[in-house]
């Protein structure tokens, strides 16, 4: 045999052996893969959208719905029920003043306790505040407001941290885009949360409308009706607090806070919180954060006291605010669904700002011409439009903070609460000294400045995102 042909034959046999081995290896791999897949349960597309973190989302939303159904309705009635030397507005001012100051240290408590335990601590203040309204005096309501300011600062930083952590964990678990998942989680939470205005205010409307009129104060209801209302509210809040106990600890591996992180001192926490003020994006968002606090103070205090009560009576405050809550809830849900990035956030926030600006202009024209007649339709329409704007600001500011500050979300939410609550506190303290027309002009001016800064942030963020997409 020719040596060359013998070598060719040997080479041919080796190639056939290699192909055979490769085929066997491939077959084994396919078989192994099939065995692995057969061993794991098949997941439908619907299953891939579910994770334990959605259960946490729904439990958190349900807990807040029950607690804030009581607190929200109580807050709406403060300026109308507790009129003795401005006790109602001043107690709200104390609340938000303490919330402002304590928000600087709130991330530290969240770090020490963990998001879940911080949530439970935060809820205790709301229970104490509603209980103080059973005997509303300067010695009960003001201290309860101060304590609520302290616990509320912890609650809202913990809520933002917990919700963002759950959204990111759900995104990693299901393979969904992180930005859209954060928007979806915020939309669902704020939609359920905003429903508290419907539940609590309808309950207040029912109980107060059926209460006896107080002959000493026309248009007001007697003590028995308010006592019954706050007792029902306390029971509702107790159930909501128990529900929060069933939350799981925040997702492990979250980028914000973790159980394995090194101890954090008060100085380092303050440094971390204040460091964000050096970020140009946060500075541009400050005016919008301030406006979010001013517009909430207006709808809770000025709108109910100076617009609704003179026109329809205090018993109808709950009915009008229920419309506000229904609008807020529906808009929050759809805003979360539509929020998929900076482009959609820009569109939604612009629409919400336009809705509230329309209400401000209408009320300003009415107050300027001294019209005292206000019908049901105009009040309900104003409440509906204001709810649209409130929903957009709550959901989209939360989403944009999660997008812009992914590695320091707790400090970002703390900054939001600092500026929002400071604005709310200032508005409550200024209520006895400013006319409705002046307040409307201030709101319109701050909204205009805030939208200008917000648009600059969205433009700069989208420009930075273009190279990454390419």
From TrEMBL:
GO cellular component, alphabetical, reads: membrane
Q: Which CDD domains match?
A: MFS_unc93_like
Q: How does it sit in the membrane?
A: Multi-pass membrane protein
- BP terms from Gene Ontology: potassium ion homeostasis
Region annotation Disordered: residue ranges?
A: 1-47
Q: Which SUPFAM superfamilies match?
A: MFS general substrate transporter
User: Where does it reside?
Assistant: Membrane
- Main localization is membrane
Q: InterPro entries, alphabetically?
A: Ion_channel_UNC-93 (IPR010291), MFS_trans_sf (IPR036259), UN933_plant (IPR044771), UNC-93_regulatory (IPR051951)
Q: Where are the transmembrane segments?
A: 57-74, 86-106, 118-139, 145-167, 188-208, 228-247, 282-301, 313-335, 347-365, 442-461
Is DNA-binding there in the keyword field? no
Query: Which segments show compositional bias classed as Polar residues?
Result: 19-34
* Signal peptide (from-to): none
Keywords (alphabetical) are: Membrane, Transmembrane, Transmembrane helix
Q: Which Pfam families match?
A: UNC-93
What does the sequence similarity comment in the record state about its family? Belongs to the unc-93 family.
- PANTHER family assigned to the protein according to its UniProt record, in alphabetical order: PROTEIN UNC-93 HOMOLOG A (PTHR19444:SF13), UNC-93 RELATED (PTHR19444)
What name goes with this protein?
A: Unc-93 homolog A
